[in-house]
């Protein structure tokens, strides 16, 4: 699972952590419905997650399209916007769960959060 | 849901985010088995999460005991230890999902991550 935080929003560490956690829970639910075997494998392997960052929403959207075309589950996190950003702001993109060799060509070059 | 990060480990923002996400996924699974109605309520309400920090494992253990005594689900995250901390290190404590008025007396005074 790769969780991509939108760098231009300059979220605090705590706010970013919560967005990453939202994405992970949403992907877990989506995978339970659509890819239960991938989910079971990922949980059995210690539910590996990596948090990375890209600057802009455009770059996140590009990653999302590439991942979706590769058959990887994707979710957007939109913040309710009570604190640091306006309501509905897309803060984080979640990809997976998938094998490292499926995700790595898409996100392997991105800087860690 | 409240996710408590162990401050003395001085994790990077990305590493802390991943620990928080581990805790959230583990709590979601635990709640699906033990408190499905609480889980459904929490998901329907936008899966509210707050990430906070306390300095030491002792303080986390104390929070865990108090939460458990109040009937709140708890999970520990132990890091596999490939990067920033030794294997098996307890990095994060997850509490919930539960109503704000159940969690607030226990964690409401803690600083945000």
Task: Briefly summarize what is shown.
Two copies of one chain form a homodimer. Chain A is an alpha+beta fold. Helices cover 46% and strands 19% of the residues of chain A.
Structural notes for this entry:
The structure is a homodimer of 113-residue chains. Chain A contains 4 helices and 4 strands; from the N terminus they run βααβαββα. Chain A has helices spanning 13-34, 36-44, 57-69, 100-107; strands at residues 2-6, 50-54, 74-78, 90-95. In chain A, strands 2-1-4-3 form a 4-stranded mixed sheet, with helices on both faces. In chain A, α1 crosses α2 (36-44).
User: Can you identify the CATH class of chain A?
Assistant: Alpha Beta
CATH architecture of chain A: 3-Layer(aba) Sandwich
Average residue-wise pLDDT of chain A = 95
Q: Helices and strands of chain A: which structural class?
A: alpha+beta
Helix content range of chain A: 40-55%
CATH topological fold name of chain A = Bit1
Total strands of chain A: the figure is: 4
Q: How do the strands line up in the largest sheet of chain A? A: 2-1-4-3
Percentage of residues in DSSP E strands of chain A: 15-25%
Major sheet of chain A, described briefly? 4 strands, mixed
Radius of gyration of chain A: 13 Å
> What is the number of domains of chain A?
1
**Assembly level:** homodimer
What is the 3D shape of chain A?
globular
| Greatest interface and its participating residue counts | A-B, 28 and 28 residues
Element order of chain A: H for helix, E for strand: EHHEHEEH
User: What name goes with the CATH superfamily of chain A?
Assistant: Bit1
Report the uncertain regions of chain A: none
